[in-house]
Automatic annotation (TrEMBL), chains A, B, C, D:
Gene Ontology molecular function terms on file: flavin adenine dinucleotide binding; NADPH binding; thymidylate synthase (FAD) activity; thymidylate synthase activity
UniProt-listed PANTHER family: FLAVIN-DEPENDENT THYMIDYLATE SYNTHASE (PTHR34934)
The name this protein goes by in its record: FAD-dependent thymidylate synthase
BP GO annotations: dTMP biosynthetic process
Organism: Paenibacillus azoreducens
EC numbers on record: 2.1.1.148
Length: 240, 240, 240, 240
């Protein structure tokens, strides 16, 4: 499997990947000039040890590549992770590449994320961040309709502005951009991917980005079962 | 001077800086265990040589720190530079830190960039990117008014959604976010800053980000006159 | 104080630094557009929270710059930390710059680290790495003498080779290089420095690099007392 | 082919690689949601354009992985490139991982690089760096013999010290380490690899590292012919 649908119109596609759990083991044992060709119990214990002790450089020799199609607000949180948090919280930004579509060019019709009537969430009770229970279908239905109308109005004004000769880089000021889908390539090491997962699978991450994190997990776990298990477990217990 | 106004409501503030042109010279001469305490002609020639030959690591020992308040579309281009382009085009992301405000929290009233009647630009004649001449004041006035109205409608819907109990992270879908001001701290080496300048001062960069690049230049040039002169000149001739 | 002697001929010099504990607080609160000008109890609690939760990006806006003179084997471990471990174990290599002297040029007489008679350590009992008790002064005295003799022989051959017209980059093959002193500039964020400290102050780090870590701590702690306290404590409890 | 011998006992082995010239093209066109499945003339022109304009982020989505066995002095220059120069001169350190053997453990007999009688080079005439003509076979033969003797003496003292109970991390002070072979895994993006090549294939790079650069080129060029051609050509003309 190499494709998972996410939200109303988004997706994650696994474009490519390099290496296996064995790559981690062989990189870690470069001092010993020993190379395994099949993963055994001892190798799995080594992976566990590396994850637990934070000796995560061997996990950087395994690479994954995804194409992602997601609302801009999700892309922005992802970027912040790559720039700020990731620098900060433990992955190194290294082994990350990012190529993304731009609204400075007119390439595609703008497409927007619209939560369905039963997908609008209340504000959380005891936190400044995140969300709580789902709102009533009545309230939700009203919001969905209003958002669709507001987006349509924006797109009309955007197109009218283009028609009037305005450059695309300014006309886009009319777009309700947080929900607009953007597409990008993300190439990252297994270490970076797992750090992203451990942050974004958490219950206080925005629901929409959690959905993308789950898709990433679903696509990647079968390829590196031992490493992903250990890295995510380890990070969880760290933050408890 | 440590503050420059940009666009209708934005600014760049120089928060702090470390080192001088001499820092570059002393880092480059660490092999020789010689340290200068005053910048002389020979030092300036060394700076020129380092910039010309691409031996730019000594410029990474000089650090600048800014607070920036700019529309989200400017922030996104800046980030892409930091993640993608910068990784790619020559500065290393190293010696960059970024901390930015978030609309997942309700902290401030949203504030928006609105081009004035004489600030709307046409699309360029022979390029898919960038912009051309300024449109007529009549067309411009109409666009400015429409944008103000559209923003007001969005902000009203955003606030009504919050009132109805919607979490902030979803309510923001109603905001025409490309023009919304965000605020961030940027800490970067002189090498990164100059690479940013050489990219963003160019005539094909979006006008709005050019304005920020000019503010960065105005605040930084007096602090490292020789290094900034040489690095920007050098990069220019590279891309010619 | 800005200079600490380390080992027999080495040192760490604090060349420059930028910011204070308040910088961390202000970078973290950029969302709120509030800026403190004096550090209070609430600020210290915020620093503690950031360190505990791994939200370490604000610590990247504080920068330190050192000149270090240390044996090559110490420099290599430091580099590995900067490249491998640091990428891997949590600091991001970002906000690090490194400029170092080179033996490809003939710039200074080679100078070597020689442990004194009471500084030779035994191998550890239950580990493949690290060291145990100090050996007897008799054994130690013998080793010190032999090392001095071996170094002298190497330096003579090195100089004879240069005399015979050999290029410096090959003549250096005669130098027992692990103990040879090299000098470098290291510019790093507070986050990187603290990650380095938490790794290299540990009892299983090589004694020689522990001594440099202590010098770094001694020079840096008075400048950022709250941040360094919290970051190092936090990392300690993480790895327990 | 996946293995090239270098110097007297070293080698480069291509362990793995990901993507093709098409990957670069598809990453660059993510804005247009068009994906090529076969490389055509238009794609090659795009690659040329990207390399020439310095829009090198698409080249970061292609990854190569090598195992390298080389003298420590070569490894150090390589690292400096990865840390310092690379940060500085244009690749981003991103998408690099490094795992290397260590002499803090006793894992293998130390093995040393010894130039043959006809491989000793003179110092360059008009430069502080690099090397000139090969010395006479007589002088060379003498140097080779002396180096072998000096290494043997060092290894004997190293082993005697281990025998006497000295920890490995101190005993290694007796090794003439510049020529000692170390082994490491290097995982890097095509952009990083080409930047390394453009630096290290140059005539003023140390001959020994030039040999490794040639091996990297030989192993990699057939996999990404268009990209490597354009990136290296481009960098050459940049530095002219």
């Amino acid at each position: 499997m190499s494709f998972v649908e996410v939200l109303d119109k988004g997706y994650v596609r696994l474009v490519n990947h390099m290496g296996s759990d064995l790559t981690v083991v062989n990189a870690a044992r470069v001092s010993y000039a020993k190379e395994s060709s099949e993963l055994n119990e001892k190798d799995i214990r080594l992976i566990r040890f590396l994850a637990r002790e934070g000796h995560t450089s061997p996990f950087r020799h395994v690479i994954l590549q995804y194409e992602i199609y997601a609302p801009l607000m999700v892309a922005r949180q992802w970027w912040k992770y790559v720039i700020g948090a990731s620098h900060a919280e433990g992955t190194g930004d290294s082994l990350e590449a990012w190529n993304e579509s731009s609204r400075r060019y007119i390439t595609e019709e703008p497409v927007f994320y619209v939560p369905g009537p039963d997908e609008w969430r209340s504000k959380p009770e005891n936190s400044k961040q995140g969300s709580g229970e789902v709102l009533s279908a009545e309230t939700g239905g009203q919001l969905t309709k209003e958002l669709i109308d507001y987006i349509e109005a924006g797109v009309q004004k955007y197109e009218a502005a283009l028609q009037a000769g305005v450059c695309a880089e300014q006309a886009r000021l009319f777009l309700p951009a947080y929900g607009m889908y953007v597409r990008w390539y993300w190439t990252a090491s297994l270490q970076s991917v797992c750090h992203f997962l451990s942050q974004r699978l958490e219950h206080d991450a925005q629901k929409e980005i959690q959905s993308y994190a789950k898709a990433i997990l679903e696509l990647s776990k079968p390829l590196y079962p031992a490493s992903i298990h250990e890295l995510i477990e380890q990070t969880k217990s760290d933050s408890e």
